[in-house]
């Protein structure tokens, strides 16, 4: 069988590019065509060099993993090792799916001449087979991720937290909010936002009913004993939301927060942001917790 290296490079370039584009869609990364093209070309050249070379280094597992990491880094330029690792794993997942579809297509077409070396398939199957396989794999991948996303039940969006302040405790149902990235600007502690009415059992009403005045510096309506006991724990948390770009939230450091989600998680360095309105009209939840604390 005659092997044309230019055809092999083109086939691998196309397949690598499609896998990269599919990975970008799944990971919601911005697509930069030139970076994906360069990464795909490196992978295609490696496939050819691996085939024509007898050096063991090209068939080494470590080399293949290193190549994948390099391709992902070039294509997506991830910020940080953790992000690089996540994208690389999804890149492998996408590649395995595409590989499975490719095997199926080869089995259906049953080409007469086909060989395999170091994971590289070469044969007489037409170029359109690659496109058909890639389209099928892309549909399966995107549809699969949508199904998984839709299968996440509503209960997974909520959890219970037990807040302890000055020896008093209260259980509150909160929603897991990926958009809640609030932190105390001084200590860097994460903030759990709680409706003020839910805190009447553990904080003085004189404090909770005068949030706006306290934020404005007016402390005349606060009794001296409450000032002495609670003011050292108070924080001012800046926040932005729809309809309010420069909001201020009064917060208080909790003694302990116990998060009840699958496994119990106890945190001590947490600020409770006191919200003076209702978070939802139906009362499905009374607080917002960031994904970082789960």
Gyration radius, in Å: 28 Å
Q: What structural category arises from helix and sheet content? A: alpha+beta
Fraction of residues in helix: 40-55%
In terms of DSSP E residues, the strand content is: 15-25%
Helix count, per DSSP? Answer: 8
Oligomer: single chain
* Largest sheet, spatial ordering of strands: 6-7-10-5-11-4-3-8-9
The average pLDDT value, as a whole number, equals 81
Low-confidence stretches: none
Which outline best applies?
elongated
**Domain module tally:** 2
Largest sheet: 9 strands, mixed
Q: How many beta-strand elements?
A: 11
Terminus-to-terminus distance:
57 Å
What is the fold's blueprint, element by element?
Blueprint: H1 5-27, H2 33-52, H3 61-76, H4 81-109, E1 114-117, E2 120-123, H5 127-151, E3 158-165, E4 168-177, E5 191-195, H6 205-208, H7 211-215, H8 224-230, E6 234-241, E7 244-253, E8 256-261, E9 263-267, E10 271-275, E11 287-290
Parallel strand pairs: 4-11, 5-10
Antiparallel strand pairs: 1-2, 3-4, 3-8, 5-11, 6-7, 7-10, 8-9
Helix pairs in contact: 1-2, 1-4, 1-5, 2-3, 3-4, 4-5
Provide tags for this entry.
294 residues; alpha+beta; Cathepsin D, subunit A, domain 1; nine-stranded mixed β-sheet
Structural account:
Helix content is 44%, strand content 23%. By secondary structure, the chain is an alpha+beta fold. The strands form two sheets. It has a nine-stranded mixed beta sheet with strand order 6-7-10-5-11-4-3-8-9. A two-stranded antiparallel ribbon has the order 1-2. Helix 2 runs antiparallel to helix 3 and helix 3 (61-76) packs across helix 4 (81-109).
